[in-house]
Amino acid sequence: MLQLANILYSKGFSIIIIHLPFNSPNPLNYPHFTFYSIPNGLLEHEPSSAEIVHLVTVLNIKCVKPFSDGLSQMLLDVKEEPISCLITDVLWYFTQALADSIKLPRIVLPTIDISTFLVLAALPILREKGYFGTKDFPLEEPVIETPPLKVKDLPEVKAQDPEDFDHYVARTMSESKASSGFIWNTFEELQKDSLTRLCQDFPIPSFTIDGLLWAVRLSAEGLIAVGVAWSADANCKEEAIRAECAGHVTDEIG
């Protein structure tokens, strides 16, 4: 997320980072960003003791008010340069309703590739069909819901409560569909088939930023070698993103 923020900053966007108190970024490393910390409402023992799906679900509930309050305050503080776009990790589905309530476009940044995202989206259906332990399938049998994967390629899903996990996945996917689009850290040419299937299941814009992890290099003088992530169609992708983010990006991380 911070790497994406660096790239957007290099293209002229202002960046505000909304973050939780634990594992928070060091503002001294990013003097060109504005940081805003919100409480998460968790007890001290909860982050280390909770099962990950349960923890993220709880955060999606407890962060609603502090995030909403913080966003409302920021909207008041930046009247001269209005916030016009919210970029969040796909995990934080609660932000979609908040963005809708103030008519703010939300763009989703999954931290997994498109193929893995499609498998995740299909998990409830795959579980219902018995792919996770209730039936025996030949390992070489194709999985029609997630081509070109075979049974042997399916991930092992470990969850204390499969129903809670499936509910979380379903909620994440439904709120992603309601967003203004995806930003993917991938090469379009490498995942062309997956991108085609994604557009069929999620009929919203998808922007690939071709190798984000290779794009940003920091030096003592500031940002260098930024922008190499954009390939030959760089201007098209940049203008598409600018159409969604008209100048001020609010960047949320967890």
Automatic annotation (TrEMBL):
One of its GO terms (molecular function) is quercetin 7-O-glucosyltransferase activity. SUPFAM superfamilies: UDP-Glycosyltransferase/glycogen phosphorylase. It comes from the Eukaryota. Belongs to the UDP-glycosyltransferase family. This is UDP-glycosyltransferase. It comes from Dovyalis caffra.
